[in-house]
Amino acid sequence: MAMNTPTLPPPSIDALVQALQRAGYFADRRLATAVFLALRLQRPLLLEGEPGVGKTALAQALAQVLARSLIRLQCYDGLEQREALYEWNYAAQLLHMRAAQGQGADIAQLEREVYQERYLIRRPLLQALQAPAPGAVLLIDEVDRADEPFEAFLLEYLGEYQVSIPEIGTVRATATPVTILTSNRTRDLHDAVKRRCLYHWLDYPERERELAIVRAQVPDASQALATQVAEFVARLRSQPFANAFQRAPGIAESVEWAQALVALDTIVVDPEVVADTAGILFKQREDVAALTRDLALELLKPLAL
Known about the structure:
Layout: H1 13-22, H2 29-41, E1 45-48, H3 55-66, E2 70-74, H4 81-84, E3 86-88, H5 90-102, H6 107-114, E4 120-122, H7 124-130, E5 137-141, H8 148-160, E6 162-165, E7 169-172, E8 178-183, H9 191-195, E9 198-201, H10 207-217, H11 223-237, H12 251-263, H13 271-276, H14 278-281, H15 285-290, H16 293-300
Parallel strand pairs: 1-8, 1-9, 2-5, 5-8
Antiparallel strand pairs: 3-4, 6-7
Helix pairs in contact: 1-2, 1-3, 10-11, 10-12, 11-12
């Protein structure tokens, strides 16, 4: 990503809230406090919450606020250490060995030569540790999708901002990376991981904050339309309506729905347009089917302007 001149972290929680807003991210004070303390204490921050509440977007906005590069480690089932930390360029090493053997190099000399940093392929963790000052923002996204051995592997990095490479030794951070871990809580993380992090549960935004997000992200939407979107989505997530769906719409779906309504020249949201655009709010066939015109009419009752 293109980088601006590195900046110092905001000096106060209020300044951080304002800086994040300028980057298009609307954080409430509790979240801003957690981020502020993570920056001041140089501790990783673990964000847990439902999909779509803005966990990943926070790391992206924070990288913009701090004018640091964003390095992302996307976790998944079966993620291996070599994909997260480093691996050797075996093809280049082999070529070097063949050339050296042709010159009569001995085995010990070969081992010293092939395990040099120029043959090291750096993956996200190592990139973050070796990023030049002021450092990087490392996003370890959806860490709950990885397995428990990978969690154990992360402990050295999370606790000491260092990693051990057998052929080279211990690699310590050049500049402490700002580290954000996210989890959708598909499974519980080990206590050892949580103890090394500050923790924040990120919930769906309150109506006013979501309205501000929609207004900022979809400036072509009128105040009335943005209000209808924020209120309708808030009701979808509330009881008893939430019981009808497998997964509530996230902030990204709210924004995308508002963009779609603007594209359709919608002035007032009605049951027909809700039914026609349900595939934007929901990504499950069953949820789309559950958002009937009758249910939409019930959801829209408080929205009469």
